[in-house]
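Supplementary Methods, section 5.1.

A reviewer requested that the exact input to the structure prediction be made available. We therefore reproduce it here, unchanged from the version used in the analyses.
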Amino acid sequence: VDVSKAQKVAAEQQMAIAGEQVRQAQAEIDLLKAPAREADLAAARARVSQAEAALQGAQAALGKTVLVAPLTGTVTQVDLHAGEYVMMGVSVIALGDLATLWVETTDLDEIDVARVAEGRKATLALDALPDVKLQGTVQSIALKSSPGGGGTAFKVIITFDEIDQRLRWGMTAFVDIHTE
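The structure derived from this sequence is encoded token-by-token as follows.
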């Protein structure tokens, strides 16, 4: 008899809890079905506007952290570190087109330049690759001399016929331009 009374009390408590849950669920349904109050809608719209403004501000700030190069290429040097500030117009990286490396001579005198023509072949030797001889072609010859080394000198640009993957910007090269 005591067990059945205890079971009855437990069942009544569960029924009361279930009834309360039904009442809460019905109240939520009624709230969802009821038209929203204008004040609540205005407050929600204000929160959305604030969130959108904050998002736009964050996007603008993020846009100021992106560096965009004016051309495509391979990064060959970085002059800026994370967290540093940079002014507009200041170079922070060096870009290079490693597919079109060339040698720029600056010591061709006026006697030698008269025997050189665009399209002439050249043999190039580099200090860094002493056992390798590379072939190139004269691409351009300066129309005006530049002062240098005790006399006049003309700048000549020679492109490599084939790019050796070991070549790097700034390597020293010795050039023998074929004049015959």
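The chain has three helices and eight strands. These observations are discussed further in the main text.
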